[in-house]
Amino acid sequence: MIEVTLKINGKMYTRKINPMLRLIDFIRDEIKLKGTKEGCGEGECGACTVIMNGKTVNSCLVLAASANGAEITTIEGLSNGDHLHPIQEAFIEVGAVQCGYCIPGMILSTKALLDENLDATEAQIKEGISGNLCRCTGYTKIVEGVKIAQKKIINSQEGD
Amino acid sequence: MQAVGVNYTRPDVYGKISGKAVYPDDIEFEGMLYAGVKRSTIAYGKVLSINIDEIKQLPGVEYVIDYTMIPGAISHGVIFKDIPILVKDIVKRIGDCLILIVTNDKESLKNALKQVKVEYEEYEGVFTVDDALKEDAPIIGDGSNILYDIKIKAGNIDEGFKEALHITENLYCSQMTEHAFLQPEAAVACYDDDGTLKVYVATQYPHYDREEVARCLNVSEDKVKIINTTIGGAFGAREDINPQCHAAIATYISKKPVKVLYTREESIISHSKRHPMKMHYKTGVTKDGKLCALKARIYGDTGAYASWGMNVLRKAAVHATGPYVIPNVDIQALAVYTNNPYSGAMRGFGATQVPLASESQMDILAEKLNMHPLKFRYINSFEVGSNTATGQKLVSSVGIKKCIEKIAEIAEIKL
Amino acid sequence: MKLLSFFQPNNIDEAKVLLSKYENSKLLAGGTDLLLDFKKDMNVPQYLIDLSKILELKSIVENESDITIGSMVTFTQVKGNKLIKDNFNSIILCAKSMGSPQIRNVATIGGNIINGAVAADIVPCVISLDGILVFESIDTLREVRCEDYFRNNSIEKIKGNEILTKIIIPKRPWLSGYYKLGKRNSLAIARANTALSLSIEENIIKDLRVCLGAVGKFPFRVNELESRAVGKIVEWLFDDEALNILENTVYESIKERKTMPFKRNAIKGVFKNALLSAVESGGNK
User: Fold this and answer.
1) Cys-Cys with C180: which of C126, C193, C231, C247 at CB 3.0–4.6 Å?
2) What pLDDT was estimated at residue C99?
3) Interface test with B, best of A1, A17, A34 (most B CBs within 10 A)
4) Using CA of residue B341, residue B343, residue B347, residue B351, what is the dihedral sign?
5) Measured between CB atoms, does C115 come within 8 Å of chain A?
6) Where are the alpha helices (DSSP H) in B233-284?
7) Do A71 and A94 fall within a single domain?
8) Mean of the pLDDT values across residues C73-77?
9) A25 and A73 both lie in a single domain
10) Which of C5, C50, C100 sits opposite A66 (nearest CB)?
11) How would residue C182 be classed by pLDDT, with cut points 50, 70 and 90?
């Protein structure tokens, strides 16, 4: 067993863990944040995407031990109380959500993309979410949702 | 038409965008056990022995359950109850469930499942429809390898082909398809204070599930409650029972909450598939471009168990003509057992496969006629008053001609 | 085997000491391959040494005659790096086509070279750019040309106590290109890939390196094509004469494999696309 400390959604968590524990298991089983989903367990589907030190990772392909000291954002860290993130608002507005299982990962990939490049073109948006599968095949609405989110974020920045 | 063209906010969307929506694997109870099944790794054969006594001794193992410990029915199925909950002796496909292991944590379960050793007497299986229909083929189904055989006839097929200027005859094959919904199967079972057994599961048929769970536990249906969680995609593959009975039996025996969670691999191995179909099509057209005869033979590989095989092949037969008037038809569709993964419901349910054949035939005939394929479809399309191959007279809601007219207008095609 | 301990050294020296101390140990780079093995209970060592905290291995540095890439540099880092962009078009194209954003964010150049062998994305690039691999242990340091590393793999293969620390790529005013054929755009590992670099003067080929990936046990150079091309005009590389050499090379390499009929043809298109990407990068070196 080894001791690790991770900052998840702004809160510090220290746990003694088996060094083989994956980051997704740390988040779901140790911290009990269930919004991060496991779809394939091998980095193909992206349902387990979280943001680690500003970059998206498949939390099924990262050891929790490797993430020691890292700062993690999960879907639960995105909204502020009842106040939704503009990406979440946009996804609701446009009807980008069907079964919902891909959505936490999809939203986090979108966030990482827009944090880095708010003006992403449609091609860049598609590339940015290319590691997230939606088997309900709702990509058209999802891409539309990302575009609406861009506008929302830009407008809110102009308003500041 | 209040809903068409209007944006509605789906009622479950807030949970889904915030990560709060509860799928079965998100549920945990105090003192919950974990259960999983060892599945067959051969497609056809007899189980000779399983090292159950050894497994019972492994760390963390609470129960090892075989078919003799199931209190009620040992099989399930949406129409025929032919899918073993736990196999008695014969396995008919890779993925048949052999024993159910219950442990007190996830790691022990993973370890115990790895330690299971099964001895089989392996039989030679059948893996294509052609082989399954041979006279000396091993019988996979209930007395026959033909699960279902439907014939649709109208007019006079021989006379019909005599009217034809062009005839085209071809074989079309469609592939097996996996649903690959994003949320792997999971279920959590537990007892309510009043003695009702509850199963939390993502399912397409909670009412069927209740019946199946009650049957296998040998209790009345009012003692079982199926709670449908948020469903991470289904596309037909959550119509058959998957983890429901296993979770319920483990709880029944242990009296404790039990979770069953599939890996992606187990998910793909275990649930139904879209029927692969072989479609022999012979279609004739008159010099005026009117379809005059269709002879179709459709074979669906229904795999090891019935599931919805008959319904799917019926639908394939009914839709075999496509949306076109053909006065003389001779259609036969068969669902055939093999040792492949069992086929069942998937988006379209038989109506999805036949257009590969029927529409390809349309293109080939249009070319022979030197007619635009859209026009060829237009002059043969159903309209109000048309008779389908099954003799149904269409009285309303036949939009295809209007649709083609619109396409022609936009694409500037002369009909 | 069961993992007994996990180490996270802060510098290369610490890592070397750990590696020499614990015999049954393994290095963890990005983990995108290794964790898949762990899932299947394969390749689980007793001691795991995670290199992710070693900053020395994470930089891209320009020297007088080369650019040195640390082995723990991620594909995302490479993709956005100006030095790489200005010098090695093929590596940029490769980094862009490797995996998904999530995979690129953790997968490393070093890990890809050491683990990816058959279908490694970056290896054909490094070989075609005459790149050199640097291996260090507590008491040794050796440099091996990437091409030799794979050609003589039984001898040159990384030793149990070694760390691949960096990849040195000579700077030269050549064009370079890369193309990968995958099953789908984002995630698939290469079914066939080609990296090439070439020196051209007034449309005459002065020098050429062509490396094919995923059509043999390891990526390899097509020497016959390289030598025949010298002195010819660039367009010759698009001719059947050149393409047939590729087809025969692939045939000879994998004639026993079921994928051969497909790959011997596919390689021609892959090569042409790689070449186009080099030519189109134009004055951009």
Assistant:
1) C193
2) 87
3) A34
4) positive
5) no
6) 244-254, 264-270
7) no
8) 97
9) yes
10) C50
11) confident
Q: How many CB atoms lie within 10 A of CB B8?
A: 9
Q: Which chain A residues are Cβ-neighbours of C99 within 8 angstroms?
A: 131
A55 and A103 belong to one structural domain: no
Residue B74 pLDDT > 90, yes or no? yes
CB B62 within 8 A of CB B102: yes
- How many CA atoms does the CB half-sphere of B332 hold within 13 Å? 7
Q: Of B177, B147, B175, B150, which Cα lies nearest the Cα of B306?
A: B147
Alpha-carbon distance C154 to nearest alpha carbon in chain A (angstroms): 30
Residue where one domain finishes, among candidates A77, A105, A132: A77
Q: Could you tell me if A123 and A143 lie in one domain? A: yes
B67 pLDDT tier (thresholds 50, 70, 90): very high
- Read off the CATH number of the domain in which A147 is found: 1.10.150.120
Pair B34, B106: CB distance under 8 Å: yes
> How distant is the Cα of A88 from the closest Cα of chain B, in angstroms?
6
pLDDT of residue B6: 83
| pLDDT higher than threshold 50 for residue B289 | yes
Which domain covers residue A21, as residue numbers?
A: 2-77
Domains, chain B, ranges and CATH?
A: 13-122+180-263 (3.90.1170.50), 129-178+273-411 (3.30.365.10)
Is the Cβ pair A35, B19 closer than 8 Å? yes
Q: Does A68 touch chain C (CB under 8 A)?
A: yes
Mean pLDDT calculated for residue range C223-229: 97
For residue C117, pLDDT beyond 60: no
Maximum C-alpha span of chain C: 61
Q: Which residues of B190-215 are buried (b: 16+ CB within 10 A; e: fewer)?
A: beeeeeebbbbbbbbbeebbbbbbbb
Indicate the residue type of B78.
V
Q: Which two tokens stand for residue B397?
A: 């809601």
The strand pairing partners of B296, in sequence order, are B281, B331
Q: Are residues A114 and A55 in the same domain?
A: no
Contact B31/B259 with Cβ under 8 angstroms?
no
pLDDT of residue C188 exceeding 70: no
Q: Chain C contacts of A5, Cβ < 8 Å?
A: none
Total domains, chain A: 2
Q: Which of A44, A77, A110 is the last residue of a domain?
A: A77
Cα A119 to the center of its chain, rounded Å: 19
Q: Are residues A67 and A25 in the same domain?
A: yes
Q: Answer yes or no: are the C-beta atoms of B249 and B216 closer than 8 Å.
A: yes
Average pLDDT rounded to a whole number, residues B346-373:
97
Counted across chains A and B, CB pairs separated by less than 8 A come out at: 86
A118 and A65 within one domain: no
Cα distances (angstroms) measured from residue B391 to each of B262, B316, B325, B386: 46, 16, 11, 9
Amino acid at residue number B327: P
pLDDT of residue C49: 97
Query: Is the same domain home to A115 and A56?
Result: no
Does position C285 have pLDDT exceeding 50, yes or no?
no
The H or E element containing residue B83 is: strand B83-84
Predicted local distance difference test score (pLDDT) of residue B7: 79
Which two three-digit tokens encode residue C247? 């087809």
- The per-residue pLDDT of chain C, averaged, comes to 93
Q: Tell me the pLDDT band of B149, cut-offs 50, 70 and 90.
A: very high
Three-state SS at B47 = strand
